[in-house]
Amino acid sequence: MWKPMLPTLVNEAPSENEWIYQVKYDGYRCGLHWTDQEVKLWSRNGHDLSATFPEIISWCKQHASSFQTHLPLLLDGELVITITDYRTDFEQIQMRSRLKTYINKYSQKRPATFVAFDILQSAAQNIRKKSFSERDQMLSSILDGVMGRIRKAPIFEKWQSIREVVDVHQAEGVVAKQKNAAYAEGKRSKTWLKIKNYRTIPGIVTNWNMENDYLTLQYYQDDALRILGKCKNGLERQEKETLNTFFKRYGQKVNGTTWKVEPSICMDINCLNAKDQEIREPVFNQFRFDIEPTDCNQHTVDQGLAQFPSSVRLSRLEKELFPAVTKLDYLCYLRWVAPFMLPGLKDRRLTLIRYPDGVHEHSFYQKHLPDYAPSFIRAIPGDDGEMDIRCQDLQSLIWFGNHGGLEFHVPFNKINKTDPEEIVFDLDPPSLDQFSIAVHAARLIKEMMEHQGFTPFVKTSGRTGLQIHILIHHMTYNETRTLMEATAKVLVESDPDHFTIERLKKNRGNRLYIDYVQHAPGKTIIAPYSTRATEEATVATPLFWNEVNETLDPRMFTIHTVPTRIKEKGCPFNLVI
Prior knowledge:
By secondary structure, the protein is of the alpha+beta class.
């Protein structure tokens, strides 16, 4: 029976040349044993998980011919449900592991992935004693380029490179592996080191169970104390003695094992998450004698969980940018969607629409680098002699958001390129009352584009329309305009009562405007997952094509609903952005 090699937890990563790095995925450690006769998934405790994750087994059987020369095969990895390539949903994989019924339904709705990060056997050859570098090369020769229910965990040579990935995606952490290390089966080894990507949140100590050493932590929400969760790990003996003395001097005994005290002691806790009165993997960080108990509140907990870049000084977080939506709410949204939003912004000139005092107040466009911008905001010379802004990384995204940037518009081509990266059809009905016409047009364009060999993706505009994105290669703006114009005219000729290419609004009537003229050098489109300056705080949201039907309502997609939607369904634009 396979027994996993275990990493040792450390606070800092080694940076010597003999180490390489992999993302630590938040899922279930698992061994995949694949032979000519069967495929088995084994948990780290020896439980057979094969029946619980039939999508992995089915995929292996379907692709067995491609791996035949490598069988029998034993892979070490993690069973995950992915949100991004590096962020995974532990709650969903945990729920899947406990299912007794409806397993096939869930496996199709939100399939799991086996991320392989090591190989122990190939073609009946035991390779545990080979170095990790050799094993990884063998794993690459088998899995590189493989996409589906099994894939290989990437290798990072530089600590800074993987640190940036983990920061943006809020991954669980990093595992550093010694290049020349053999596989120490069933042992915890110092040749594998794990570094957790802890969030740090504040809490108020209110209860202490002397029998099991658990501290109950609370925080303020709407002026009332709420339970944050419990913590016992990380306190040194002297710190425990200090708490012991304090509780006995100022506290009150609740029962034979538990004491309580009025809100007075604050501390920082390292954790992976805090939700529903439970702190996940809590570890004491430090006492906070510099703050008051009221400083431990919903806002400071949300900030800690968001892990905002320390390089960005946040300000006036209580200000409303949308009705009943504070700047902190908005920044937490940007932080969550950053892995999905940044690929659509990176290496493109940015046009920002700023609402410093919210959607009901003055707004303005910003394309050029302001003189007060920090050094990390990247810029590039524009055609007008000014420096055009770009949004290249997380700290830039959060900085723009902190300055009231609510709408992110980007051109169709990247910097230093004259040809577009994509075609975008902008379908603009006269109002939401005619949104069904946009749905009809989107379906027709999808069919026409697929007939010509393209793969269309669709998103809401965040207002009243739909936008169809098509990734392209080696096409000029003139070529894309010819294609788009021809497509638009076919639609207008087939149904002139509902479609038009008339640019003047007053001449459109109740017809949907198919905008192909906007697809040109220097023109822009709203970026995927950007908010729009609406009452509802709506979002330009990528959709699955089966959602483009008569029940679709673009007002459903807001900063309140989109993160949960991505978590539950994934991102339809993974191949585009």
